[in-house]
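Action item from last meeting closed. Structure (367 res):
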């Protein structure tokens, strides 16, 4: 099998699992070079994972060897690096969100289309065994017609564990832009596009104190809403209630539940690739656990890159694509816009549900 050469820009906290999986799990990718503004981080990543080249970002983007650029920088760097990579004729896969500004997301998707390049974006957790099994259950009619859903992401932020938590409270951060992509991408992959959003948001604490190392005791000025609640109307009919918060110490609420005319489906945490999945049919006595029907139940971050590499060969549309990511980006902005304007926000984008993966694929091979 021919391996697609990948270059990774950004060797921070999230890069380790990408490097591990794109070098060892997926059969069709080869990490050829890494780059980081802190060269020592790139050198350590290269040494740890056997990457042959440590370059500057400019060298990596200009290299004729690199076919896919994986952009793992912080959100503020997503737009500029993605645009530069596309201008160099590279396919691009970027960590979530696609960009900070919706207009920049539109620009990137249009630029990729104009140049005949693939633009992809995390999260790719919806390609894991858990959400792919849920997709098959819905498509096969187990819950009947989807009517409604609930989604909850409730925690107390990242300053207690993340080594560099500041950007979670700057523009482009907050619970909606940090964790919302997992939930919204999962919901769109299961139910289709969103049509209308109604949201209310608040910034509960103006400052946060870091309690993790190495910045213990430092103060963060909070710039974004840290509790966002609202309702979405999906084009296919379901009405979905969603709450994301960095202001809640603990909760027993479910991650995602989907309610259909013939039953209820409890969906796994969309920030994971596995289960458990619970299903109760109409009139049933209780919930039963559904076995996973698909592969990639372990942490398979990078599967979206591997799928892109496979589609470079097959000519099909890759699943974690820019159209999906930009729709999710508009939804996230719509929650904030609706809250500020105290009006419904009507979306201007839509997207196809990504093609499902086939059950029973061999781990690390996407066809």
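Sequence:
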């Amino acid at each position: 099998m021919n391996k697609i050469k990948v270059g990774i820009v950004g060797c921070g906290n999230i890069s380790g699992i990408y490097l591990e999986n794109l070098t060892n799990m997926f059969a069709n990718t080869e990490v050829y070079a890494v780059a980081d503004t802190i060269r020592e981080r790139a050198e350590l990543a290269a040494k740890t994972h056997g990457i042959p080249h440590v370059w500057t970002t400019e060298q990596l983007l200009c290299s004729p060897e690199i076919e896919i650029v994986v952009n793992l920088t912080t959100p503020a760097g997503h737009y500029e690096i993605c645009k530069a990579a596309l201008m160099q004729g590279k396919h691009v896969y970027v960590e979530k969100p696609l960009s900070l500004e919706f207009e920049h997301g539109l620009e990137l998707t249009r630029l990729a289309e104009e140049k005949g390049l693939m633009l992809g974006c995390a999260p790719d957790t919806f390609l894991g065994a858990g959400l792919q099994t849920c997709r098959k259950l819905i498509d096969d009619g187990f819950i009947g017609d989807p009517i409604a859903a609930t989604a909850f992401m409730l925690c107390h932020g990242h300053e207690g564990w993340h080594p560099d938590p500041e950007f979670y409270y700057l523009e482009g951060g907050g619970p909606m832009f940090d964790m919302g992509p997992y939930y919204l991408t999962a919901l769109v992959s299961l139910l289709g596009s969103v049509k209308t959003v109604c949201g209310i948001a608040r910034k509960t604490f103006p400052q946060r104190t870091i309690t993790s190392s190495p910045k213990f005791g430092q103060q963060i000025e909070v710039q974004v809403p840290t509790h966002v609640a609202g309702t979405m109307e999906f084009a296919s009919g379901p009405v979905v209630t969603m709450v994301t918060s960095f202001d809640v110490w603990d909760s027993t609420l479910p991650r995602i539940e989907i309610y259909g005319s013939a039953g209820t489906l409890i969906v796994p945490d969309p920030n994971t690739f596995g289960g458990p999945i619970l299903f109760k049919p109409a009139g049933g006595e209780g919930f039963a656990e559904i076995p996973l029907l698909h592969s990639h139940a372990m942490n398979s971050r990078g599967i979206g890159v591997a799928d892109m590499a496979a589609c470079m060969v097959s000519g099909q549309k890759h699943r974690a694509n820019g159209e999906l990511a930009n729709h999710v980006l508009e939804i996230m902005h719509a929650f904030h816009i609706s809250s500020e304007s105290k009006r419904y926000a009507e979306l201007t984008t839509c997207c196809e549900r990504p093609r499902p993966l086939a059950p029973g694929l061999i781990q690390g091979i996407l066809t």
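Note appended to the action item: Residues 126-290 form a domain with the Dihydrodipicolinate Reductase; domain 2 fold (CATH 3.30.360.10).
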